[in-house]
Write a structure and sequence with these properties.
single chain, alpha+beta
Length: about 550
């Protein structure tokens, strides 16, 4: 949900997803002078709690936090015009009081506050339900809670915290197939986490018609061997079918049927592995739409026949023409592989249509089509969150390209890292991710175009916005228009991961530049921290306008 309030020169714009509440602020000129930042108090009406939110930056003259410490924003305010609550719970009513603070760090004075009431979204909605895992093994909170042990060492609570409802939602979805009226038809690249295989077996034992296609293509880098070992261990070999032709069966979807009629699709970026569910950032997206489910089941049947690439591309041309012309539907499904890169260009054209904001994840570099979009200097704030700048032989050139692109004032890029500092730097050392992880941090594949507008666009699924994901691999994507609830959830999660990793990259760059004695920045002790937010054309200026809804 969205809620915007303005009073006496202060604006607060709230965007509530399921687990994240974004707040954007603005101050009229008359209220800026002497403002040292914002204190934020949260009242949880469900649990009858009220407290000041905390952060890790302090005024040097009044506090110096210990290792892994937190400070109340009432004494050490947030010096930003955008702040997010990442500890919100689904379907909760909250009141956020935003309090500008003036004076000096030693004697802070309260300005006129402004409160906004929000209710976070429910997890299971109609027709869309969106579930993001924590995606933050590399975090101060994980280090505090679980002493940086592996999840196996830390125990079930660590897995639950990292899953953040993703594993539970998948399990709930599969368990809807509770008797012989139902069917489950899955297509999955990596199929290895024992609990997910167990729930598939449970559905079969309850009488449901269950079949799972998995990537069984040969090659040293593929998941075939691990998939088949896990399938053998779970004793579900009779339910599973290897996809052995083609380059890569990279899908992650499951179709639910009832009385032989498709009724819902589970899709997204999540492989059913330890790292997919609990490690790097991923999303599971449930779409309760019969027409879409029918299309996915038709695609599943095409995959089941194990066609060669030429046959597949011909099937796509006949059964899944894309981009749509004209584009009429608010939900469009796109399957791969297909002839040419028309669909990839369509995604880039959608990105280029942004009027206010563009937000994209890139797991393995940025294709030239999207570089062209990001390299346009305009009034559109453009965020990119990346696992790395490129892949394989393309990494060196990717670093050159991203370095060039991020110099533009309207482009904001973060490449994921973890904290490697020691106790002298205040920060707890973090795990770099789960063991044996090809992707440590960012595995999502989604794009948001004008997510706070009246007609947002969300593109989400299994494809990496790359050439191979369009003309070579088996992939699926959903293009969703005009759904503010979906856009609000995705935007909150994007900013959660972006903020988390942007800081870590900044630390890594400082260390690479030889700042061996790097220390975290302290809060500024006068109002000069505001300057960039009111410098026309700067990235912070554009961010303030976007999140405040200006």
């Amino acid at each position: 949900m969205r809620k915007k309030s303005t009073s006496k020169g202060l604006t607060v714009n709230a965007i509530a997803g399921t687990h994240v509440v974004l707040l954007g602020f603005d101050l009229a000129a008359a209220r800026r002078r002497g403002c040292l930042g914002f204190a934020i108090q949260r009242e949880d009406h469900e649990e009858d709690e009220r407290y000041w939110m905390t952060g890790t930056k302090t005024f040097q003259s009044t506090s110096d936090l210990g290792l892994g410490g937190q400070a109340s924003s009432r004494q050490h305010p947030f010096q930003s015009f955008q702040w997010s609550d990442y500890s919100a719970k689904p379907d909760h009513k909250y009141t956020y009081k935003v309090l500008p603070l003036y004076g000096t760090p030693q004697q802070l004075k309260e300005g006129e506050p402004l409160s906004v009431d929000v209710t976070t979204e429910v997890e299971f909605g109609d027709p869309h339900s969106v579930f993001f895992n924590r995606g933050a093994v590399a975090s101060q909170e994980y280090a505090r809670r679980f002493l940086n042990k592996t999840p196996e060492e830390a125990g079930p609570e660590a897995f639950k915290w990292l899953s953040r409802g993703l594993m539970e939602a998948f399990t709930t979805f599969i368990r809807r197939a509770k008797d012989d009226r139902f069917g489950i038809y899955g297509a999955i690249y990596e199929f290895q986490w024992p609990d997910t295989l167990a729930v598939i077996k449970e559905a079969h034992n309850n009488g449901a018609d269950v079949h799972v296609l998995y990537d069984g293509t040969s090659g040293s880098s593929g998941p075939k061997e691990k998939n088949e070992t896990a399938i053998e261990d779970a004793q579900i070999k009779g339910l599973c079918i290897p996809r052995t032709t083609g380059k890569m069966m990279h899908n992650k979807f499951f179709v639910l049927t009832k009385n032989d009629k498709p009724i819902a699709v589970w899709t997204g970026s999540t492989n059913l592995t330890e790292n997919g569910i609990f490690g790097h950032s991923n999303v599971g997206h449930l779409f309760e739409d019969a027409d879409t489910a029918v299309a996915y089941l038709e695609y599943w049947n095409e995959l089941k026949s194990n066609p060669v690439a030429k046959t597949e591309k011909a099937w796509m041309a006949d059964n899944n023409p894309a981009p749509p012309d004209p584009w009429k539907e608010d939900a469009v499904h796109v399957f791969s592989p297909r002839t040419g890169l028309d669909v990839l260009q369509w995604y880039a054209d959608i990105a280029a249509s942004a009027k206010k904001g563009l937000f994209m994840t890139f797991a393995f570099g940025m294709h030239k089509f999207f570089q062209d979009v990001y390299e346009k200097e305009d009034e559109v704030i453009k965020f990119a969150l990346m696992e790395k700048e490129g892949n394989g032989a393309g990494l060196t050139q990717g670093k050159i390209d991203i370095t060039r692109i991020r110099k533009l004032p309207n482009v904001v890029v973060a490449v994921a890292k973890n904290i490697t500092l020691n106790s002298f730097d205040r920060w707890l050392q973090e795990r770099p991710g789960l063991p044996e992880a090809q992707v440590r941090y960012i595995h999502d594949k989604f794009m948001l175009v004008d997510p706070l507008g009246d007609k947002p666009v969300v593109v989400t699924g299994s494809a990496n916005f790359s050439k191979a994901s369009t003309d070579t691999n088996n992939e699926n994507m959903l293009v969703i228009r005009n759904d503010k609830r979906v856009a609000d959830i995705y935007l909150g999660e994007f900013m959660r991961c972006y903020s988390h990793y942007a800081f870590r990259e900044a630390v890594a760059i400082a260390k690479e530049n030889g700042e061996a004695d790097w220390k975290p920045n302290y809060l500024v002790e006068d109002d000069s921290w505001q300057k960039d937010y009111f410098t026309d054309g700067s990235s912070r200026f554009l961010r303030r306008q976007f999140f405040a809804g200006s």
